[in-house]
Design the sequence.
C-alpha cells in the first residue's frame, strides 16, 4: 500500500491538500490519507465492476424469481455504501502497519529464483486465504453469531453483483482479514499484493453475478456463482471463496442446483413457459421450501 500512498502524496496530497510543513511520514497524516485512498478505491472498484457485471454479465431474468426482493438492487447498493466506510477503519490500521514496514512485503525480484517464488506466493496466497475464509465464513453461520453479524448478507436470496459487498461491517472485515494476514506471515511482492487484493474483490463480485456457466473440466474444483448462489439459497453449503476443496473436506459441499437443471434460472424459465402455455394458471399459491419453489395444491 506504500506504493499507492507515495503516488497519492506526490501527485495530490502534498501539492494540493496538506501544508508543506506536514511530513509525509507522519502517522496521523498517513492514517487520514489511507482512509481517503482506501474508501475511494473501494467505491470505484465496487461501482465500476459491479455495474459492468450487472449490465453485461448478470441475467436479468433472475429478477423475476419470487425470492428477488422489491427494490433489491437499490437496497444492496445502499447497504454497501453504509458499510464500506466502517470496514475501512480496521483495514486502514493493517495498511498502516504495512506502510510502516511491519509486514513481509518486498520490492525487488531477483532472477530466476525471485520469479519462481513470486509464482509460488500467488498460488499459496489463493489457497491460504481460501482456507481461512472457509472457516471464518462457516463460523459466521454459527447460531450465536449469525443473526448479529452475517444475516444481513443473506437477505439477498437471489443476489446481484451489487450484493457482493453488502455486508455488516464486522462481517466484511472478518472475511477480508485473510488477505491482510498473509503478507505478515509470508513474503509477497508489493505489486502482486495490490493486484491480488483487487482480483479477490473482483472475484467476490463475480460469484454474485448470476452467471452459472463454468467449463465442465473446472466444475469439480472452482467455487463459482452457481455454488455461491446455492449458498444464499440453502444456507449450509458452499462456504468456500475460490475452490471447493474445503467444502469437500468439511462436508459442506453441494453440487450446484444450476448444474442439475434445478437452479433459479431453470425455475424462472419453467414458470415463464408454463404461464405462456397456460395464461390462466395462478401462481399466487406457491411456497418456497428448502431451496425449491413448489405449487400449493
Sequence:
Amino acid at each position: 500500500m506504500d506504493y499507492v500512498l507515495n503516488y497519492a502524496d506526490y501527485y495530490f496530497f502534498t501539492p494540493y491538500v496538506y501544508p508543506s510543513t506536514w511530513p509525509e511520514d507522519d502517522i496521523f497524516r498517513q492514517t487520514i490519507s489511507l482512509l481517503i485512498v482506501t474508501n475511494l478505491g473501494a467505491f470505484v472498484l465496487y461501482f465500476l465492476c459491479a455495474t459492468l457485471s450487472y449490465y453485461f454479465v448478470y441475467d436479468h431474468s433472475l429478477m423475476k424469481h419470487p425470492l428477488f426482493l422489491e427494490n433489491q438492487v437499490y437496497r444492496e447498493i445502499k447497504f454497501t455504501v453504509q458499510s464500506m466506510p466502517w470496514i475501512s477503519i480496521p483495514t486502514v490500521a493493517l495498511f498502516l502497519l504495512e506502510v510502516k514496514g511491519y509486514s513481509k512485503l518486498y520490492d525487488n525480484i531477483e532472477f530466476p529464483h525471485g520469479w519462481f517464488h513470486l509464482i509460488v506466493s500467488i498460488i499459496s496466497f489463493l489457497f491460504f486465504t481460501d482456507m481461512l475464509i472457509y472457516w471464518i465464513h462457516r463460523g459466521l453461520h454459527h447460531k450465536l453469531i449469525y443473526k448479529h453479524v452475517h444475516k444481513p448478507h443473506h437477505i439477498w436470496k437471489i443476489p446481484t453483483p451489487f450484493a457482493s459487498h453488502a455486508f455488516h461491517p464486522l462481517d466484511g472485515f472478518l472475511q477480508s482479514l485473510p488477505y491482510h494476514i498473509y503478507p505478515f506471515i509470508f513474503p509477497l511482492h508489493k505489486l502482486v499484493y495490490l493486484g491480488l487484493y483487487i482480483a479477490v474483490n473482483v472475484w467476490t463480485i463475480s460469484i454474485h453475478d448470476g452467471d452459472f456457466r463454468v467449463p465442465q473440466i473446472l466444475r469439480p474444483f472452482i467455487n463459482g456463482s452457481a455454488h455461491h448462489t446455492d449458498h444464499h439459497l440453502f444456507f449450509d453449503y458452499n462456504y468456500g471463496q475460490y475452490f471447493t476443496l474445503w467444502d469437500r473436506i468439511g462436508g459442506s459441499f453441494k453440487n450446484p442446483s444450476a448444474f442439475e437443471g434445478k437452479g433459479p434460472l431453470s425455475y424462472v424459465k419453467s414458470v415463464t413457459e408454463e404461464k405462456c402455455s397456460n395464461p390462466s394458471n395462478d401462481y399466487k399459491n406457491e411456497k418456497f421450501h428448502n431451496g425449491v419453489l413448489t405449487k400449493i395444491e
Remarks:
- Residues 2-255 form one domain.
